[in-house]
Amino acid sequence: MPERLQVPRGTYDVLPEDADARVAIEATARRILEGAGYRRIETPTFEQTEVFARGVGASTDIVQKEMYTFDDGGGRSVTLRPEGTAPICRAYVEHGMHKLPQPVKLWYLSSFFRSEKPQQGRFRQFWQIGAEAVGSDDPAVDAELIVLLATLLAECEVGGLRLRVGSLGTLAARQAYREQLQAYLRAHADELSEDVRSRIELNPLRAFDSDHPGTRAVMAGAPLLLDHLDAADAEHFATVRELLLRAGVAHEVDPTLVRGLDYYTRTVFEFTSVALGAQSGVAGGGRYDGLVEMLGGPATPGCGWAAGIERILLASSGLPVAPPPVDLYVGFDSPQQRPGAFAIVDEARRARMNAQVELAGRSRKGQLKHADRIGARYVAIVGDDKTMLKDTQAGEQFEVDTVGLVARILRDRRGMR
After folding, report:
1. In terms of C-beta distances under 8 Å and separation of at least 24 residues, what long-range contacts does 394-402 make, across chains too?
2. Please, which pLDDT band fits residue 222 given cuts at 50, 70 and 90?
3. What is the mean pLDDT of residues 152-177?
4. Are residues 153 and 307 in contact, defined by beta-carbon separation less than 8 angstroms?
5. CA separation (Å) from 238 to 176, 232, 233, 249, 400?
6. In what order do the strands lie in the sheet with 39-40?
7. Which helix or strand (DSSP H or E) is residue 135 part of?
8. Distance separating the N- and C-terminal Cα atoms of the chain
9. Dihedral angle computed from the Cα positions of residues 200, 187, 222 and 274, in that order, rounded to the nearest 10 degrees
């Protein structure tokens, strides 16, 4: 007997009983985001590796350690997308979206891939809902995106939420602070983790993310970027906070908040949930005013976020999900009636009814039991001349002509017996 095969470690099957909750999240996201003017976009599963090496940042863990990169057979390096913002900015440039009314507001629901250690809520293949607004530096863009994300998480009943916000300033304004932080880290290099020491020149801000005890102790006394914002950055951040307060979105300022991607500027934010334990992040994002330009486009501001589907499901108290209703279940007593039953189901489906036909060779008793199991409103058992029709809601059962069965049900549903 062949060895039983399983999915690779860090991946999983979405089973039918899990799919309804995912569909509910998607429907909620579509209603909230499209109601606010965001339109659906999907980018390819794999992109040119340069999209991420240039956009996400060569010094990030994603590019250095976590990307699935391979040769496409023609000497070109391609990568399974590890995140969604850089591909959308690539599409913005490639399709000339800068000619559209700005900002261009987009949302997506896609799968992503990272080669990292699997943990609860962290997989090598995972799904995210994301929203991006490209083409405006107005702080109201940042605030709107955060409010929409807060609304989505609330409607998905994610418990124990905490919103932290911060500002990284503009790339130019951040340079002076970066040099000051680098000098501080070099002075304490012996106390830092090897990973943080190796990034002092490339990405010193990631030291704030370290869970290494020595590094954490050093960073407790590190200079903070929020104390070094220029006037324009400080005003932008203050306006975002004011708009959040006006919208009733509770938040706290975290001066140590950084994101794992190099393209972030100014506003950054993260939603966490106590329901998730150590891996508490549910969603997050921020502003990326230089990313489009990094990918070959014109200087273009942008802001966005991503929310993990698996994280939402783990932190949710249980989405109210109901399977699609079954309007009609059609069975039969003998194989001779199978074609007639099949024709009835086809007619019912063309009349936009949710209809199922007996497919397992059950007895009449078994068919009635199965119809009850799936919650069918009407049950029809096809006979030689007549068909038994049962209205389970009214508790009535009667014989009808097989030919007019679907029309009879439609009249019955309109109260026109």
Report:
1. 402/340, 402/344
2. confident
3. 89
4. yes
5. 21, 10, 9, 14, 71
6. 39-40, 104-113, 125-134, 302-308, 281-287, 265-273, 161-167, 252-253
7. none
8. 58
9. 60
Question: Identity (one letter) of the amino acid at 181?
Answer: L
SS3 content of the chain, % helix, strand, coil (to 5): 40, 20, 35
Residue with the two structure tokens 């994610």: 158
12 token code pair: 């999983």
What is the structure's pLDDT at 320?
63
Residues 154, 210, 277, 319, CA torsion sign = positive
Burial 189-202 (b: 16+ CB within 10 A, else e): eeebbeebbebbee
380 pLDDT more than 60: yes
E strand or H helix at 254:
none
Cα–chain-centroid distance for residue 14?
Answer: 15
16-35 and 139-155 helices, crossing angle to 10°: 150
For residues 170 and 287, give the distance between their C-alpha atoms in angstroms, rounded to a whole number: 10
Residues 6+ apart with CB under 8 A from 310: 121, 123, 126, 127
Answer for the pair 377, 324: CB distance below 8 angstroms, yes or no. no
C-alpha to C-alpha distance for 337 and 74, rounded to whole angstroms: 57
Question: Can you tell me the distance from the alpha carbon of 174 to that of 195, in angstroms, rounded to the nearest whole number?
Answer: 22
Taking residue 342's Cβ as centre, other Cβ atoms within 10 Å add up to 16
pLDDT score, position 242:
97
42 Cβ contact partners less than 8 Å away, ≥ 6 residues apart: 108, 110
**pLDDT value of position 60:** 66
Residue 128 near residue 243, CB atoms below 8 Å: no
- Are the C-beta atoms of 154 and 106 separated by less than 8 Å? no
pTM for the model stands at 0.88
Tell me which residue of 383, 375, 380, 374 sits closest to 405, measured CA to CA.
380
pLDDT of residue 79: 93
Which two tokens mark 87? 């591909």
| 13 and 7 Cβ atoms separated by less than 8 Å | yes
Instruction: Please name which of 113, 47, 42 lies closest in space to residue 78, comparing C-alpha atoms.
Output: 47
Backbone angles phi, psi at 13, to 5 degrees: -95, 135
398 phi and psi angles, rounded to 5 deg? -155, 165
pLDDT in tens, 297-346: 999 999 999 999 999 999 987 666 777 899 999 999 999 999 999 999 99
Q: What does DSSP assign to residue 255?
A: T
Residues 337, 338, 342, 343, CA torsion sign: negative
State both tokens at 99: 């000619």
